[in-house]
Amino acid sequence: MRILRFNDPILMPDTGESSEQRLARAIPLRGTCGQGYVERRGISVEVADAAGVLFDADFGGRPAVVFPMRDQLGTLTSLHGRYLEAGRGKNKMFTIGPGGGVASVLMGWQAEPLILVEGLFDALSLASCGWASVATVGRWAPWLPKVSAGRVVWLAFDNGRPGEAEVIHYTQRLSECCVRRLPPPTHCKDWNTALAKLGPGAVAKWIRDHFSASSVLAP
Fold first, then answer.
1. Backbone angles phi, psi at 25, to 5 degrees
2. Residue percentage of the chain with pLDDT more than 90
């Protein structure tokens, strides 16, 4: 299975704005149509606000919720946007910046355990259940092997072939840590689907059960 890789523009097309300039234009979610969007996906505005999600009414021509992607020092590397609507022929997401960062929610990569997920809304869904995580958004951060060395890292990528391909990819690259698999609940493609179908209590229990089973089975 080929893993999709991205070639994000460093600057916003047409305007030439940097990720820093675009982030400065973003506003809090509350009272915007971005609030309604995250709430329809089962995320409270309080969780989204605490995670640093903002609203941009004109992110590359369309309204989007946006989130800064940062490196291990907290330096902004990219700005990731998730569009409120994505019709035929239109992208669901757009990212600008040189790359090398992740979307950290709650304590992100500094939390124990370290959980890696695919998308922003996967991370927000785990935060709704009380768990910190890091969303890769399909990008590779070259500093992840260093900060994960000697730790247990849970690969909580999507169910299905693309998610399993990411698991293989990260297992190969994170060779100095103990890698374990944390799949979304059965019959759920990803964590946001699980949150919508099962609710935060059931998702939190699924995660706790996997951690407990692993601690019992670990050598």
1. -85, -20
2. 89
Q: Give the DSSP letter string of 129-143.
A: TT--EEE-TT---TT
Which among 160, 166, 175, 165 has a CA at the least distance from the CA of 135?
A: 166
Query: What structural domains does the chain harbor?
Result: 7-99 (2.20.25.180), 102-219 (3.40.1360.10)
Q: What is the DSSP letter of 18?
A: -
What confidence category does residue 29 fall into, taking pLDDT thresholds of 50, 70 and 90? very high
Q: How far apart are CA 200 and CA 219, in angstroms?
A: 31
Give the span between the Cα atoms of 112 and 213, in whole angstroms. 17
The reported pTM is 0.93
Tell me if residue 178 falls in helix, strand or coil: strand
Structure-token pair, residue 65: 């919720």
What pLDDT, on a 0 to 100 scale, did the predictor assign at position 215? 56
Using pLDDT thresholds of 50, 70 and 90, give the confidence band for residue 213: confident
Judge whether 144 and 69 are in contact, CB under 8 Å.
no
Strand 27-28: give its sheet, edge to edge. Answer: 27-28, 54-59, 62-70, 76-83, 93-96
Q: What are phi and psi of 22, to 5 degrees?
A: -70, -40
Band (pLDDT 50/70/90 cuts) for residue 217 is: very low
Distance, CA of 143 to CA of 77 (rounded, Å)? 13
